[in-house]
Structure formats: C-alpha cells, structure tokens
Amino acid sequence: MEISETILCPYCGQRMELVVDTSVSSQRFTTDCEVCCRPFEVVADCEPGEILGIDVLSGG
C-alpha cells in the first residue's frame, strides 16, 4: 500500500509530496527536490498501510 507524506527539502525548505510503499518495512532511497533539483536521501520505517517514521537527510 502506498501512502503520501509531506516532506521538506533539506536544502531549500520546499514542501513536497512523497509517495512511500509501506509494504517495505525499512527503506532508504535518494530523490531530487522538485524546486532546487538537489538530491537528498530519505529513510523510512513502515508497517503495511502506515509510515512509522521518515527522515530526510542532506547529501552532506
């Protein structure tokens, strides 16, 4: 099941919607900001149908 979560870009602070597949319990992936185009890492912990925690990390 996919859940939509609002996150903030760690660089420019832009709000954006991110869709997370909650059937995967622990995941880590890279995505790009829709505004400043800089890549950042997302770490999500999930249970089916629920996001337990989500962290947005700058590339450093």
Blueprint of the fold:
Elements: E1 2-8, E2 15-21, E3 26-32, E4 39-47, E5 50-58
Antiparallel strand pairs: 1-2, 3-4, 4-5
Short description:
Helix content is 0%, strand content 65%.
> Whole-Å distance between the termini?
31 Å
The average pLDDT score comes to 95
Strand order of the largest sheet: 3-4-5
- Provide the domain count: 1
Q: How many strand segments?
A: 5
Helix content: under 10%
Structural class: mainly beta
Note poorly predicted spans.
none
Share in β-strands: over 45%
Taking all Cα atoms into account, the compactness measure Rg is: 11 Å
Largest sheet: 3 strands, antiparallel
Description:
The chain has no helices and 5 strands. By secondary structure, it is mostly beta strands. The chain has one domain. The strands form 2 sheets. A 3-stranded antiparallel beta sheet has the order 3-4-5, with no helix packed on it. A hairpin with a 6-residue loop joins strand 1 (2-8) and strand 2 (15-21). The radius of gyration is 11 Å and the shape is elongated.
